[in-house]
Specification:
Strand content: under 5%
Order of helices and strands: HHHHHHHHHH
Number of strands: 0
Shape: globular
Structural class: mainly alpha
Number of domains: 2
Number of helices: 10
Largest sheet: none
Radius of gyration: 28 Å
């Protein structure tokens, strides 16, 4: 004959065997934060993230190396006798080509490196994070333009002092505005592609392949050449360096291409970014 021993079941009202010192307090003492994270702090964080990652750091080093090489060639070519505007173009063009990649990384890093869960836990309102990324990329572009002006001025003065050049500091304000727009529009396009795709390789490839594809198709198919004059941003932005002579049609072509390749990706990207699942 077998007997079954039943262990006593603890009553729900039984006291916990844990000592009093090990119990979790009902309320953690201290002041509770009553204000949201300031937008300025979000902006500073996004600016820092552009330079404290390995990819962003090497991209900036690459931009510096290309600019240094271009200025060195100009300094020794024709005894450095080039106007200030030519030196400025040499410093602006590499930034206009490579800086959009920094804008792409500013957006896609949250998704490709799986840090979005941390970001959107600390700041659940995605709109504030999104605008901090966009404005951070634009501020980086403004800083790059200021740096390009300083580097061009240093090299031009060096040509005057060391190479015996009489100097030509003439620079039309409209030309400076055009060069600035060239850089900033490229960065905005990169940010838009990053928001739309949320994948670093895909966004970078698409950003560089589309202009090449437009050029090839425009050469092969005659009727696409007319469309490319309105939709190819490489074509529509080139006159910005001669903005004082841009016609009304060229401004309309620029506005059309910017609407298709900048405004539309940014708008769709923001919409998708706010609805994407964070993993």
């Amino acid at each position: 004959m077998s007997t079954t021993v039943t262990e006593p079941v603890a009553s729900p009202t039984a006291e916990s065997p844990l000592p009093a010192t090990a119990r979790i307090p009902e309320r953690i003492p201290g002041e509770r934060p009553t204000a949201a994270i300031p937008f300025s702090r979000l902006l500073l964080v996004e600016l820092r993230k552009m330079v404290d990652t390995r990819a962003g750091r090497w991209l900036l080093i690459g931009i510096g190396a290309v600019i240094a090489l271009a200025l060195t060639i100009m300094f020794f070519n024709e005894s450095g006798h080039h106007p200030f505007a030519a030196y400025l173009q040499a410093t602006t063009m590499p930034m206009a080509v490579i800086l959009p990649v920094v804008g792409i990384l500013a957006v896609t890093s949250e998704w490709s490196q799986r840090t979005g869960l941390v970001t959107y836990t600390l700041e659940p309102r995605r709109a504030r994070v999104t605008w901090a990324k966009f404005l951070g990329a634009m501020l980086a572009g403004v800083a790059a333009i200021a740096l390009s002006l300083a580097l061009a001025a240093v090299m031009h003065q060096g040509a005057i002092t060391l190479r015996g050049y009489s100097g030509d500091w003439s620079l039309d304000n409209k030309a400076l505005l055009g060069a600035s727009l060239y850089v900033l529009l490229g960065i905005a396009q990169g940010v838009g592609f990053g928001m739309l795709l949320r994948n670093t390789p895909a966004a970078i490839v698409l950003y560089f392949v589309l202009p090449i594809a437009w050029g090839i198709l425009g050469d092969l198919v005659s009727w696409l050449d007319g469309a490319a004059s309105w939709l190819d941003m490489n074509r529509t932005m080139n006159p910005l360096f001669l903005v004082e002579s841009m016609t009304g049609e060229q401004w309309a072509q620029l506005a059309t291409s910017v609407g298709v390749w900048v405004a539309l990706p940014v708008a769709l990207g923001i919409w998708m970014l706010h609805r994407a699942e964070v993993k």
